[in-house]
Design goal:
- With 569 residues, the chain is of the alpha/beta class.
- It has 3 domains: 192 residues, Restriction Endonuclease (3-Layer(aba) Sandwich), CATH 3.40.91; 184 residues, no CATH class; 170 residues, no CATH class.
- The chain is built from 25 helices and 12 strands.
- The strands form 3 sheets. A 6-stranded mixed beta sheet has the order 5-9-8-10-7-6. Strands 1-2-3-4 form a 4-stranded mixed beta sheet, sandwiched between helices.
- Strand 6 and strand 7 form a beta hairpin.
- Helix 6 crosses helix 7, helix 21 crosses helix 22 and helix 22 crosses helix 23.
Length: 569
């Protein structure tokens, strides 16, 4: 049974997209500001979807990869043909060239399906990339295609994917003959993402999820921090069908610990509220997920040994012996799946594939589940960070669970600033009017620059939440109370460059330098720092070679030259 989407999902998505646009527009300068709400929602749709599917949380950088003709005409007053591709993202970590075709419908129509014709419209640009030629392309698109061609010409193995994005309720069938021929001819994966998938990506703070379980004594081990503690946690061997039940949308079934008709679970779908605090974002397709499904079908009785299990934290856990002390009845209140989200999604997806799967396979499979009593939020953060640290998760995602980063989110929220710790964040309070949105990565780069490393803020950003993290965010280098003013200054300086013809990435590097310069020369105001940087950049010509400003600014020699000009040496 395929997931479905309603008109309410459509309306909620529009609200979220409008919010995304408004947040981005506060820090950007549109040459022609769009007045119609539907246009704002459409442009916000681009920003939200690209943040969710690309390895990027910085809305400025996301805007830089949007090639849609209409969007760029409003943003820069330049109109270039997008050749059927609305965005192009190059993921150097996963070696994937991601092409995006967007379709944004203004009205909801039940049963409306994505058009497969849109996939064929995009093939002109795919041909340009595969043939190694950017002839006839203009503007942003030309530069992005040239970057893609450069990657394909390297010795690394690259994958090309076409993402068909729309807010329609029914996806195209990517296995239909015409799409399959397209995939085979271009050696390109075609991925459909529409409203049913998108609604699982929307961060809407959930109502508390409550469930009850009956566990055999020999399938359970209790744990408490000390001998006098009344707060206990549990490690249990849980049937996969029970996992489906306690994480489904039906509250009656979640609390029906004695569910005898297991087949009724075949129609139940996951309540994504239990994954709200999960470190991993939306995963469209994964070899890991495929392996889980394969092991479920081929050897369900051994699934327990093949899977790493799940970690659940609950605000309250109650346990009482029943059936003459042979079993334990456990009530878990307001719980979240912090680790094992992919396992949980795949169990539900496998359940949805065939009504017989719940009885034939899932009821014969077991999973190791850790249920922690974590009424203390700091404990929850630590559990999430440490139980995820053994898996392939980025340093940024791991650090997003740290107490300091959550404190930053709370502090900045008080100043009407969204501190985006994960994809899809639109603030802690849906009713609040926020002034700015900034990602963890952006803020880390800003601090790194202020602390004396503007030349490393762009090209070594992957290490900011790795080997440099403890220094950057240490109490000796970083005063958390200064965070709001630092962010306000960042956006004020950025606005000063909005009329420039440089790319946004180049502007961002300049902002890092301005913040650094003001820190080392507080006698210079921000405008004076801007003037000095623009004066010094043309003077720096190492070995008489011609370098762009962007390349100059990543060199240590340029920072040293700037320091000399500022009379710091």
């Amino acid at each position: 049974m395929t997931a479905v989407a309603s008109s309410n999902d459509f309306k909620l998505l529009n609200i979220k997209c409008k919010k995304y646009f408004d947040l981005y527009a506060k820090g950007a300068n549109f040459a022609n500001y769009p007045e119609k709400d539907k246009l704002k929602e459409r442009f916000g749709f681009y920003l939200f979807m690209l943040e969710s599917l690309c390895d990027e949380k910085d809305l400025d950088r996301i805007s830089d990869i949007i090639t849609d003709t209409e969007y760029n005409a409003y943003l820069t007053n330049e109109r270039y043909n997008d050749q059927g591709i609305d965005a192009l993202y190059i993921n150097d970590d996963t070696k994937e060239i991601m092409l995006f075709n967007f379709k944004f419908r203004e009205a909801f129509k039940p049963g409306q399906m994505q058009s497969s014709n849109d996939a064929f419209v995009s093939t002109k640009l795919v041909n340009c990339i595969l043939n190694g030629s950017s002839d006839g392309l203009e503007g942003k698109l030309k530069h992005l295609v040239e970057d893609a061609i450069e990657r394909l010409d390297s010795n690394d193995v690259w994958k090309t994917s076409l993402y068909m994005m729309s807010n329609e309720p029914v996806p195209i069938n990517v296995d239909e003959t015409s799409i399959q021929q397209l995939k085979d001819f271009y050696d390109m994966e075609v991925i459909s993402v529409c409203l049913p998938q998108i609604k699982t990506m929307m961060s809407i703070r959930p109502r508390p999820v409550i469930a009850e379980l009956i566990i055999d004594n020999d399938a359970l081990m209790s744990y408490s921090e000390n001998s006098i503690s009344t707060s206990k946690s549990y490690i249990v061997r849980l049937n996969a069908a029970d996992i489906i039940r306690i994480t489904c949308k039906n509250p009656e079934l979640r609390n029906n610990y004695n569910c005898e008709r297991i087949e009724i679970l075949a129609k139940e779908r996951i309540d994504y509220g239990v994954l709200f605090d999960n470190v991993r974002g939306f995963v469209q397709k994964s070899k890991y997920n495929e392996a889980i499904a394969k092991s479920l079908k081929e050897d369900p009785s051994k699934f327990f040994m093949y899977n790493n299990g799940m970690t659940i934290v609950a605000k309250d856990i109650k346990a009482e012996p029943v059936n003459g002390n042979k079993k334990i009845r456990i009530s878990i209140n307001d719980f979240q799946v912090l680790n094992g989200g992919q396992t949980l999604r795949t169990l539900h997806n496998f359940n949805a594939l065939d009504e017989a799967n719940i009885t034939d396979y899932l009821s014969k499979s077991e999973v190791l589940v850790r249920i922690f009593n974590a009424s203390n939020s700091d404990s929850v953060n630590k559990i999430a960070e440490y139980t995820n640290s053994q898996n392939s998760i980025s340093n940024v995602d791991l650090k997003s669970l740290s107490t300091l980063q959550i404190q930053l989110e709370q502090l900045l929220d008080e100043h009407d600033i969204i501190y985006s710790r994960k994809n899809g964040d639109t603030g802690m309070n849906d009713q609040k009017e926020y002034r700015y949105k900034i990602s963890m990565e952006q803020f880390g780069q800003i601090l790194f620059a202020i602390q004396g490393n503007p030349e490393k803020s762009s090209n070594q950003k992957q290490h900011i939440f790795g080997k440099y993290y403890d220094d950057i965010f240490s109490e000796s280098n970083f005063n958390i109370s200064e965070s709001p003013s630092i962010i306000e200054n960042y956006f004020e300086i950025k606005k000063s460059y909005d009329s420039a013809t440089d790319t946004l990435q180049k502007i961002e590097q300049k902002v890092f330098y301005i913040l650094y310069m003001h820190n080392v020369r507080p006698d210079l105001n921000y405008q004076q720092c801007i003037d000095e940087l623009e004066r010094v950049l043309p003077l720096f010509e190492p070995s008489k070679t011609t370098l762009t400003d962007a390349r100059k600014m990543i060199q240590v020699r340029f920072k040293e030259f700037l320091n000399t000009e500022l009379q710091l040496d």
